[in-house]
Amino acid sequence: MGFRKDFLWGGATAANQCEGGYNEGGRGLANVDVVPIGEARLGVITGKTKMFDFEEGYHYPAKVGIDMYHRYKEDIALFGEMGFKTYRLSIAWTRIFPNGDETEPNEEGLKFYEDLFKECHKYGIEPLVTITHFDCPMHLIEAYGGWRNRKMVEFYERLCTVIFNRYKGLVKYWLTFNEINMILHAPFMGAGLYFEEGENEDQVKYQAAHHELVSSAIATRIAHEVDPENQVGCMLAAGGYYPYSCRPEDVFESRQKDRESYFFIDVQSRGEYPAYFLKDLERKGIEIAMEEGDAELLKAHTVDFISFSYYSSRVATTDPELLEQTSGNIFASVKNPYLDASEWGWQIDPLGLRITMNDIYDRYQKPLFIVENGLGAVDVPDENGYVEDDYRIDYLAKHIQAMKDAVELDGVDLLGYTTWGCIDLVSAGTGEMKKRYGFIYVDLDNEGNGDLKRSKKKSFDWYKQVIASNGEDL
Ligand code: P53
To answer: What is the ipTM of this complex?
Structure first.
């Protein structure tokens, strides 16, 4: 009983939120570099405000991140000390292809990740690599319009061919696109999309989504060709919708809302566009341009496992009186009166994780991998950098228990669990350092002050014991 013996416990990060070194090692500029902290951020990540380069008067937290580019050895040693079996990280596309459309990769970038993966293996840590985690070379956005352009399929394919060959034997778990459904909520961050005034945004988003879905299938094909050991997963920003009430309209609305996200995974896992989606496009007057062979490609190269992030459940209603939204989340929802919330207004719902796991497993019957979960909170360290983060331990213990119930009581096949931001890093939604998720504290604030020193929080030893007991000792 319990989790499988080879259960992959670990933590997760993304290049743009922790590496820094934005102009080192021949790296090119990416969309994620030019999103500032502060009020301008929302407009930029949603593709409404045009900011294609650094501008005077703004702070860009991704420039330094938490400086992992220079400190990864120290950080991986700490992950090793916690007993991590896996470490989820992402490759910065611009380290491999600085502009995105070159034919030859940048050796310095390739070498950086090779060394990093070798460092992981020293501690018996299996890397789990997100090929694109909200990053797109700025040159591809300026010259081609980002993922709206079919040419992106070719550039992404080139990236995949290079990394699958170079890292053969070092990496076997791959995720094609982080939170692929985020293209609908933060299209500049998710897919390098910026909208001109008056443009049909849905048309652009769904065309871009098609390009990503085709690319994901091609990546899966190449990964399997290069090494049959490779396991490729899709990645969904999950957290299902509850109907606000048992009014049939609310129930139907919650199903519709879930489908907005599930459609991506329906394509990646079942290999075809679902009927409800095609009908919806028809009603919206959207036509997706497809090339010959796309349908066959999608059908032939479906993913091996389904990964997802889970922070919260969501609520849907058609009643305008009840439309009070949760705050602080680009993926907004109606507020659930039965749940507490984090300091950023994200509602806390461990049972929702079990429900979500069951929904996804029922729908696809493929192994699942929870690749993000955690609590973003304000931590107050003592003079040694020690944080007594009992609130974080409480959040994680309850979610791990719920996930255990899904495995033990419901029979869900779960490959592993990586907590988000195992070391404090820059928030994707807000750009803050103050919103911390880690077991490891990093001395850095929202304005960029701090010596970047790492220190263990209370949750560090707690998670170590969770891993050592394979999830028995919570
Ligand atoms: P932050 C919103 C809703 C769900 C997941 O988010 C999200 C977001 C973006 O804010 O993104 C994922 O940092 C994403 C990570 C991100 C993490 O959730 O806003 O994959 O890059 O950092 C947490 O608190």
So the answer is: 0.97
